[in-house]
Amino acid sequence: MPSASSLGTVRAVRLVEVGKPLVEADVDLMLLGPHDIRVVVEAAGICHSDAHYRSGARRIPGTPITPGHEIAGRVLEVGGHVSRVSVDDRVAIHYLVSCGLCSPCLEGREQFCEPGEMVGFHRDGGYAEMVTVPARNAHILPDSIPFEMGAIMMCSTSTSLHALRRGRLVPGERVAVFGVGGLGVSAIKLAQALGAAEVYGIDVNDEKLAVAEALGAQPVPFRKSHRIEADIALEMVGSPEVMKTAVGCLAVAGRAVAVGITNEAFPLDSFNEITVKEAEILGAADHLASEIDELIEMVDSGTVDLSDVVTGTVPLEAGAVNDALDRLDAFGSGIRTVIVPGS
After folding, report:
1. pLDDT tens-digit profile of 196-238?
2. How far apart, in whole angstroms, are the C-alpha atoms of residue 119 and residue 61?
3. Which residues does 57 contact at the CB level (< 8 Å), separation at least 6?
4. CATH code linked to domain 4-155+287-339
């Protein structure tokens, strides 16, 4: 990261100690590198991954850190060698900082970049008034897409698109979405837009089942999900029990895609659930910059409507952010909460 300078400070909500609530702090502005941009954060999504970082369910490299990897805002300043974006551009930020030169990057798998970093995980993210990132991570956000929507597109929606691409969805297939949260709602909408014949929305929460039904998916209580049959099953929760059920509901040649974060193994009847069905279990890690461009085009054209995915906004205050993270930890109601620093 660039070194600290005497450029002043910005207000942020930070993870200072794992297992403890986030706290408010003033953070030094960083020097702007020649290939960097400084962005005024207009919206920052609160992702379930951030709750995992806070709790320690996923180990974060170090603290203190400013979380927030779903970011949209307006360009305030550009480095001397930046030409792809300009001051005052509306942008959404791809959270994977990759080099573009190593073997994974050249092979189109930049999420495995050898020196790569993740905004809000390895380097300070969007729970702040401003964020500094490489210009190559900025994607122009059309005026038709509000900042709040642009922010959540940078993780929950783009990761769902990547999961469906990993699952090789073919029009006419059946898709089971396990977990009707931020990722799950986006996955339902994307599966429908990409031609799925039937989409099942599976959850333990009655309010989220009602959301799935309102979106045109078939709502299925988790306790009954073993009765369905799907060509693609997306596990969005991060639960061994849910992953086992997702694999168990696959049709012949079906594909189960693991997206949720967990450190636990899940049981598998390899012969009956995989071998005799020629089924597959796939992982989906993050997403690609090219998928962000595809997604922005889909939303801008009206092919996918994300207007109801953001179900709440909060100010850049530690108490409000911690409350939102608590609700995620409890798998409570609501789909996606977004920090709006200017509110």
Report:
1. 999 999 999 999 999 999 999 999 999 999 999 999 999 999 9
2. 12
3. 51, 261, 262, 263
4. 3.90.180.10
* pTM, entire model: 0.93
- Which residues lie below 8 Å from residue 210, measured CB to CB, with a gap of 6+? 219
Residue 282 near residue 307, CB atoms below 8 Å: no
Tokens of 323: 């409350």
Collapsing DSSP to helix, strand or coil, 176 comes out as: strand
Taking residue 102's Cβ as centre, other Cβ atoms within 10 Å add up to 16
Alpha helices in 145-285 (DSSP H): 147-152, 158-166, 182-193, 206-214, 240-248
Q: How far apart are the first and last CA of the chain?
A: 29
Residue-wise DSSP of 34-96 = TTEEEEEEEEEEE-HHHHHHHHTSS--S-SSB----EEEEEEEEE-TT--SS-TT-EEEE-SE
pLDDT at 3: 39
Residue labelled with tokens 């060698």: 81
Residue extent(s) of CATH 3.90.180.10 domains in the chain: 4-155+287-339
CATH of 168-283, one of 3.40.50.720, 3.40.50.1260, 3.30.2130.10, 3.30.413.10: 3.40.50.720
